[in-house]
Amino acid sequence: MGTTVIGLIVVAVVVIYLVVIYNNLVSLRNQFKNGFAQIDVQLQRRHDLIPNLVEATKGYLKHEKSTLTQVMEARNNAVSAQKDAAKDPGDGTKIQRLGSAENLLTKALANFYAVSENYPELKANETVQQLMEELSSTENRVAFSRQAYNDGVMSYNIFREKFPNNIVAGLFAFKETAQLQLESPEARQAPKVSF
Amino acid sequence: MANPGFFERQAHARRNTGLLIFLFLTAVALITLAVCLVGYLVTRSQSSALPFHHWLLSSHGLTTSIAVVLLIGIGSLVRWVDLAGGGSRVAKMVGARLIEPDTSDPEERKLRNIVEEMAIASGVSVPELYVMESETSINAFVAGYTPGEAVMVVTHGALTHLSRDELQGVVAHEFSHILNGDMRINVRLIALLAGILMLGQIGHFMIRAGFYSGGRSRNRDGRAQAAMGLIGLALLIIGYVGVFFGRLIQAAVSRQREMLADASSVQFTRNPEGIGGALFKIGIKSGYLDTTSHASDMNHMCFSESARMKFSSLLASHPPVNERINAIQPGMLARLRSRLRDTEPDQNLRQSGQAQPAARAGLSDLVNHLAEPSPLRRRGSSSPIRSSFADNSPIETTKLSSRVGTVNPQSEAFAVHLLNQLPATFRSLLYTRAGAIQLCYGLLIYDLSQTTQRERLQLVGPHPLLRVQQDLLDKLLPALAKLGEDARFPVLELAMPALRKLDPEEREALLANIQRLVAADNRVSLFELALTTFLDRHLSADAEQVVPVKYRNYRQVLPAIRRLLSLFARAGSGSPEGADKLYRDAMAGFGTGSEESRAEKVSMRELRETLEVLNRLSPLLKPAIIDACGYCVTHDGRVEVREYELMRLVADQLDCPMPPL
């Protein structure tokens, strides 16, 4: 009688332990999935800000039409790439295309900042200053959301691969997930405004 | 997002809670015992001589103990309930102002953006933001019970003095507190400490009551009064002891967590320089919340120490700033210090070493300088030296010639001020040959755009010593830009001893290089003229030889005088008519006057020849020339930098050392 009770208790403890592991796996997986959605949100924000910036600086940069058109083209390209990737997030090539489109946009923006250095009245304009701050904040947010996603993926993978957890993971088909390597490390920094 | 070690850190935080409770109960027990002891001593004479432990268990002892525990309990409970409203109650406690989410103030907007970025990076929702407007020091804290309804409070000083990256480092540090569950413990701790502190406040009250009532009525029993006063005093002392224990509790619980939060900040921002820079600035400026009344209550929650305390090394709830910087990244402290030496005027550094309250204004300027990277300033903008010129409102009308060769207190003060304004590395560079050479190049190009600078520097040929050394130039150019045009000549003169160490060949080559740089834009500005003449004078082959006196009266050198005064008259007045009049006035001193006509232009070569000729005048005749030039320059009561440089050049060429005007 005593041994049965002890046996039952042991079994109960083990079951509870496994349940806890399962729940942790679920919560970690959902966290990184949420991280992925965040990236999308921030990219969207970036795309929305750029037309405002171009509009506000058009008056000052009359002689720099090529730079402005370059920025707008890169932005439109990135928007279409994003819409494409949103339809089918699992597709690796689409994510790649999105990555390179965003890269191009970053380069165009860097060029834009370099050109605007020659126009001090431009930088003194308050609206432009605000927009620049918002844009630089958005660059940071895109970077941080990618970083958060990657951190989430890393925690999930580590937890998933540790010893007793991997059994549960195998049982319930928790797959390994890859981190996002969209852009090169230098592109992680917000385009620097001063040279 | 959850980091690896997230669960360990939660466990760590829970252990801290246990420790906290244990320490708190111990403190309460000790305080109760202490109060009982006081009660025992006071009442001992009345009752029979009971030993202490018996007295404790008697009705007196028990009443006292219960009373003390109740008091502490009520004090804590009151504050607990007060703060149960959530983090915003703490924010109200310190008098902070809410920042609206759609604020339009640029600094608040910047803070809001930074906080939202960090929320993304850490996976925590965005807290409500408050700012402590009357605080100019740098500090911040978070409060609240759950991450969902957290509150972040930042001082106004942090908004103005920290760069974007540094502010982000501080915000990330606070977010890690939210993430690791530190907030709840912190807020509870404020409540617990409030109870202990209340004892001291009651004691204070009793003392005052004892004194006042004694003065008013005679009917009270004198001894009861004294007893009350004594008890009050005792409670006060116990209260202080309680505060001591409270601080110990704060310190024990929070020091380790602060290092952990620093590390998490680096993990979130991937940028150790941000939080490192913020800590460095706090080390200079301090984070003391001088205008907040509950600063010491919240000491453990803030980013850095918020209240000055005795025994600070023991009771500090944060590790020392230098230790924190070293923990973030070894070597960063040295880097930050060297950067400070490279850019800041010497006197500000020396002041910060003493950290006196009187020098506080200088310190905040210092920190402000650190906050914004100073852009390359255009010629003629504000410079620290300019004030010494502007201040001389009534120009002394005594003859300039009488000041040749003299030193007066004002000149000395000016010199000292100038030397103090130079960054330490800048000055030491001037004393080396390489640095002095680069300075000469730098003086000619410092106010040009970067691309033009590079073009000009290409004109300087390769040579082991005389070639362009970009690393030295990079240290000199920003300082030159900041010091402005007033400091150009003084700085050049400082470099002369080093330049004189060059051998004749090198000197020639240097002069040739300078000539090339000057000729690059096909225009010779007044400064370039002055510079080349100055260098020629002191570095040419016959610089050290004595000039024989050739002319003994003005008639022989009249053409030269005419040319010189034409130049000065033009420089000293704004219009051609004014210049004419000035010229005639000046020439009047040399026996000619009304029939003179001013020469329109004087070329560089002509000027040089003029000065060479005039240098051969007999010494007794030179003063008049200097006075005439001085008259042109000072007749309108103001000395522009251009005029000053010209004057200085002439005086130098004529071998008449002249103090600053």
Automatic annotation (TrEMBL), chain A:
SUPFAM superfamilies assigned: LemA-like (SSF140478)
Compartments where found: Membrane
Name of this protein: LemA protein
Taxonomic superkingdom: Bacteria
Coiled coil (UniProt feature): 121-148
Keyword GTP-binding carried by entry: no
Bilayer topology term: Single-pass membrane protein
Family: Belongs to the LemA family.
One annotated Gene Ontology cellular component of this protein: membrane
Chief subcellular location: membrane
TM segment ranges: 6-25
Originating species: Marinobacter excellens HL-55
InterPro entries documented for this protein: LemA-like_dom_sf, MamQ_LemA
Keywords: Coiled coil, Membrane, Transmembrane, Transmembrane helix
Cross-referenced Pfam families: LemA
Statement: the UniProt record of this protein carries the keyword Lyase: no
Gene: lemA
UniProtKB/TrEMBL annotation, chain B:
Biological process, per Gene Ontology: proteolysis
CDD domains, sorted: M48B_Htpx_like
Keyword Flavoprotein: no
Keywords: Cell membrane, Hydrolase, Membrane, Metal-binding, Metalloprotease, Protease, Transmembrane, Transmembrane helix, Zinc
Regions that span the bilayer: 20-42, 62-81, 189-207, 227-249
Domain of life where this protein originates: Bacteria
Ranges of residues in domain Peptidase M48: 107-329
Listed InterPro entries: HtpX_protease (IPR050083), Peptidase_M48 (IPR001915)
Cofactor: Zn(2+)
One GO MF term attached to the UniProt entry: metalloendopeptidase activity
UniProt-annotated stretches for the region Disordered: 372-392
Coiled coil regions, renumbered to chain: none
The protein's name in its UniProt record: Zn-dependent protease with chaperone function
